[in-house]
Write a structure and sequence with these properties.
By secondary structure, the chain is α/β, with parallel strands linked by helices. It contains 18 helices and 13 strands. The model has no long low-confidence stretch (mean pLDDT 96). Bound molecules: ligand F0G. Ligand F0G binds next to helix 5, helix 10 and helix 14.
């Protein structure tokens, strides 16, 4: 047995309940808002429930040399900060986390920033950041005796859920919007044995249907309304701080879709500060695609007090979300950390993705909004040259190979979207040639470049 210390606290009305008392849709019975996992006493300056910072830093680093399975997970390595299971023996892991923090030297030079880094969450076992949250939430499902788990998804959550469910021996149900997710992600759900339903609606419609299904069937919901997902997704904040010798970056830039990831990373940094492991929070900014920007609109219209859902359109299908579940949590993170929320165009996303690719760090389009957003922030003077900036790259480039190929073939963007970006795009495009099978033709193609 572990010290299972957690309770759930409603983000809206502050009501506290035991973890096992959550409703199937993870909404508060009093006010309908979402819950957050809370650990009693952590926000106090002293007390018996408060871990010792120096000892933790030592222990977490030691575990990197351990051969124990849980120690090799970049999520469970930090298990003192996620005491959510009755027994760690119930943890289902694919050795997620421990992802690289890469310097982006060329982009840094172009932008005139001293230190620009990319935390590449696409290097997780199923190719996205979702694995870090799936290992925690699916372990809870297993511990609580569920046989079925389910999610609505733009693709990555379903890929991660299906893989972890397969490892745990659970059945999984996936609802995805028909024709609106990348094939790589759909193929993963099939490969890992999920029951995959393509619904004739968008992501927000899939969420609505699933919320009803879980009311009537004994299925454990693994969308990010499930607060245990965010517990795993906060751990990259610990890794970033550890990699920077327990200094936090000045600025963290995160893509925004359903807005759980920005919320989770904010929670991670907030807990590190509350526990005395770091001195301050980074500024956390959230970037959305222009056609799927309900949070940007919310800040413009009501300073983040109200959110009007939108019908979402973007080729960055992972963040094609018009009614984000965790928007209130994300507003708090942005406001508490003095961050910004802005949107970027389809052309800006495609260019940023190609620039990251040209530095040897492919990513999926939704991840590239971070670099596109940084360019805007730097242009507006909101990021200083002496700052350390970390971009969170959320998904692997092979998740959506069609997008990349279409960009380089010149078939991705429409004329009016390209306007004003022609030179940049021409400089980045690297189409594949069809060449006669002889050395002279190959050398001519090479020199023609
Ligand atoms: N980047 C990628 C690659 C994603 O898959 C997602 C979300 C996000 C960014 C946005 O993160 O929703 O926490 O703000 N994908 C979800 C899914 C919704 O179903 O895979 P968020």
């Amino acid at each position: 047995m572990n010290d299972n210390l957690h309770q759930l606290r409603c983000f809206g009305c502050g009501d506290r309940i035991a973890g096992r008392d959550a409703r199937p849709d993870f909404r508060c019975a009093q006010c309908g808002d979402l819950f957050e996992v809370e650990y009693a006493g952590w926000n106090l300056r002293q007390g018996t429930n408060r871990p010792n910072p120096g000892a933790l830093k030592w222990l977490w680093r030691e575990r990197r040399c351990s051969s124990e399975t849980l120690d090799q997970s970049g999520v469970w390595r930090f298990r003192e900060l996620l005491p959510i299971l009755d027994s760690y023996g119930n943890a289902i892991t694919l050795l997620e986390g421990n992802t690289p923090l890469y310097p982006l030297a060329r982009s840094a030079r172009r932008l005139g920033i001293d230190q620009l880094l990319a935390k590449h969450q696409g290097m997780n076992p199923t190719g996205s950041f979702k694995d870090t949250g799936m290992t925690t939430a699916l372990s809870v499902a297993k511990e609580r005796g569920f046989e079925w788990v389910a999610c609505a998804s733009t693709g990555n959550t379903s890929a991660a859920m299906a893989a972890y469910a397969a490892r745990a021996g659970l059945r999984s149900l996936v609802l995805i919007p028909e024709g609106k997710i990348a094939w790589g992600k759909l193929s993963q759900a099939m490969d890992y044995g999920a029951v995959t339903c393509q619904l004739k609606t968008d992501f927000d419609g899939c969420v609505r249907v699933l919320a009803e299904v879980v009311q009537h069937e004994p299925i454990y919901l693994l969308n990010s309304v499930n607060p245990y997902r965010l517990e795993g997704q906060k751990t990259p904040a610990f890794e970033i701080a550890e990699d920077l010798e327990w200094n936090v970056p000045d600025h963290l830039i995160v893509p925004g879709g359903n807005l759980a990831n920005s919320s989770a990373l904010g929670k991670g940094f907030r807990e590190l500060r509350e526990l005395g492991l770091v001195a301050r929070m980074p500024r956390i900014s959230v970037i959305q695609a222009e056609g799927a920007n309900p949070l940007v609109r919310s800040f413009a219209a009501s300073h983040g007090k109200e959110l009007e859902p939108v019908e979402a359109h973007t080729r960055a299908t992972a963040i094609r979300i018009g009614n984000p579940a965790s928007w209130r949590k994300a507003v708090r993170v942005i406001q508490d950390s003095d961050g910004w929320c802005l949107d970027v165009t389809e052309a800006e996303i495609a260019i940023a993705k190609a620039e990251l690719g040209a530095e040897g760090l492919g990513c999926e389009p939704a991840s590239a909004v971070t670099l596109a957003g940084l360019k805007k922030l730097r242009g507006d003077g909101k990021v200083g040259s002496g700052e350390t900036v970390v971009l969170v790259l959320t998904g692997h480039t092979l998740k959506d190979a069609d997008y990349t190929i279409d960009f380089h073939r010149g078939t991705l963007l429409r004329e009016e979207e390209i306007a004003g970006h022609n030179a940049e795009i021409d400089a980045l495009r690297r189409n594949a040639f069809v060449v006669e099978a002889n050395p002279a033709a190959v050398v001519a193609a090479m020199k023609g470049q």
